[in-house]
Amino acid sequence: MKKWVSASIVLCLVIMVGAGCSSGKTVEPASTSAAVSAKPGATPGEQKIEKVYVYANGGNLSSVTDSSKPEAVEEVRKAIMDKIGIEVIPIIPPKGSEDDKLNIMLASNEPLDVFNGSMVLHQAKGAAMPLNDLLDKYGQNSKKLWPAEWIGGWEALSTKDGQIWGLPINAPSAGNTVLIREDWMKKLNLKMPATMDELEAILKEFKEKDPAGGGKTIPLLTNLEELNYSLAAGFMDVGYGKWIDADGKVKPEVLNPGYKDFVTKMADWFKKGYIYKEAFTIDAAEQIELIKQNRVAVGAHWHSRELGNQFALQANVPEAKYIVADQLRGPKGLTMTMGGPVGNGWMISKNSKNPEAAMKYMNWLQTDLDNYMLAYFGIEGKNWKWVDKTNHVYERLNRDYLGDLIAAMSFAWTIQFRDASPQNAPSFEYYKNFLTNPKTAKKIVLFDEEYKFDSNALAENIPTLNDLNRMIEQETIKFIMGARLISEWDSFLQELNKAGMDKWIAAYTAAYNEVK
């Protein structure tokens, strides 16, 4: 099952703009001034430079192989110090072992203030401190930055007693959707579909009219997971996810009566040749190649599958463009699913020597986009520049500085700026218009509960969990591809019972009752 943007949609941005590798070292400055005059954002009368140790595990230093130049990091560090009177000391994680290094540091006396942590792991294990008082005193702008309509951000980082343990990073999101070649729709004089029947009619037209030519047109390209999250909710009263049956028990998606209707429709589409015959056997890289080859008319995918590769496609087909089928509805309404909150956020270590300065720094980063850009991308005019400041479009000038000092990364900032690379523009538009939009997707039933479940306990209580998941995936694909008849669906559900579905239901129901 797809994790709903764990470390991140923010990380999607990171990967696009590039970042540096990690060394596993704490980067101490060459020298530190003993005192400075009062700085904007500092406590009135404060003179002493405050140090904040930041564990750089936001994701931006783990995606590529280069690293920042020490002199560039020092220049950014001094610029931040001049503005706020806080000296940021980055702790660069060893690449591939970020979590291990963090856990060691949290269990030791090594200096550490800010880190990207988990409620299930770090808060539950007592590694983080509550932030309520710090937020009240020094974090007002962090409170303001997070949009009020993004329900689930703060909630996922809070406990029942009202204590807040981190600053939210990612909002609940709907990343899977149906994307259609707009240029081919215009060529065939087709309108944006609003119903499943209209979408089916469009797939039929694409198959018969073959806009790619030579019989190469693929009416619909997808895979099972992304097909589920893009379309299945249209056949159910709820978003595609675990649900509560009339008996009060938590049931898996496959037991939802509407899911059988969905699989029946997909099987019909596959039989008619609308779904690519190898859709469920090829990997993501192979699917991307088909998109770049100008063969895919409609995709039911994670949005960046088509949108992130549209620019490469346009190199050979300049008019090619994918658009979101945002008006699409199934028999039971919206087809897209919005997952639940993610319990990861920017935390302050329980052993922090200077939690006040840590909160001041994160609040400063979340106060103004210029502050955020300085810590993330470096010196304006030297490391990066605005190409269109009004619309917050920037261009990186070099890779001397790659974000060693950034913390408090937030999707609330991600949607407010983008790099100038044309290949990234379609994905950023999706971020802004659809990813967190509750008007275009159904929430999962356990929106407020599932992120609190103890996955380790569930695995222990369901010995056949992996076997069940594999069985559901494999057999569902067989039904869609016609290897099994839909008339065998009830027999399939009985097979799941024999494989341990009763233990699955009992374990998830117990987890739900414990946290709800």
TrEMBL record:
The keyword Cell membrane is annotated on this UniProt entry: yes
Protein name: ABC-type glycerol-3-phosphate transport system substrate-binding protein
Organism classification: Bacteria, Bacillati, Bacillota, Bacilli, Bacillales
Keywords: Cell membrane, Lipoprotein, Membrane, Palmitate, Signal
Domain of life: Bacteria
Signal peptide range: 1-19
Organism: Paenibacillus eucommiae
Pfam family, one: SBP_bac_1
